Every structure is written in C-alpha cells, then in structure tokens.
Amino acid sequence: MASQGPLPRWRLPQAKWGQWVEKLKPIYRNLWKRARIYDAIMASVCGIRRDSAAIFALLECWCPETSTFVLPWGRSTRASAGEAPRRLSTTTG
User: Fold this and answer.
1) What is the spatial distance between Cα 82 and Cα 67, in angstroms, rounded to a whole number?
2) How far apart are CA 60 and CA 80, in angstroms?
3) Mind telling me which Pfam families this protein's record contains (predicted)?
4) Which pLDDT does position 13 carry in this prediction?
C-alpha cells in the first residue's frame, strides 16, 4: 500500500485490472453506462505520468500570502477537492 491514514490506498492497480476491463467492456458497456459507472471504470485504466518539471513550474507561481497561483493571465485559487479553480482576475503582472 502507498500510504497510511484513515483509508488505505494502493499505489498501482491490480495487475490484471486492465485486462479484466477490456474483456468485460463489450459485454457490460451498456449496463455500466446505465449505472453511470462507465466513465469511472474507463478512467481507472488510464495511466497518469508525473511531470516533475511542470509541478515545480506551477509551484514557482504560488503566492503564500494570498493563497493563489500568480499566472501570466491572472491569479487563480487552488481548487478544493471536487471544485474547479476560481479565476480571481484577468490582469497580468
């Protein structure tokens, strides 16, 4: 497991999860869509690569005094879980 805390999390999915999804997708696609879980299942087989350079570049834009990212096109707050970032201004600089 990847981390300790209130809920256990696994760093990598089960080895054969992707194969299982691909095998059952033709059979259960419509059922998964009706149950509104199809997109979640498809997202679970996608890989996300960490881009350390992009993370560090974004961190350089963080302003701790205002808790915002100062980006070339304006300031933006950090997003809470399940919330889209809010744009605070459209001024540059």
Assistant:
1) 18
2) 20
3) PMD
4) 60
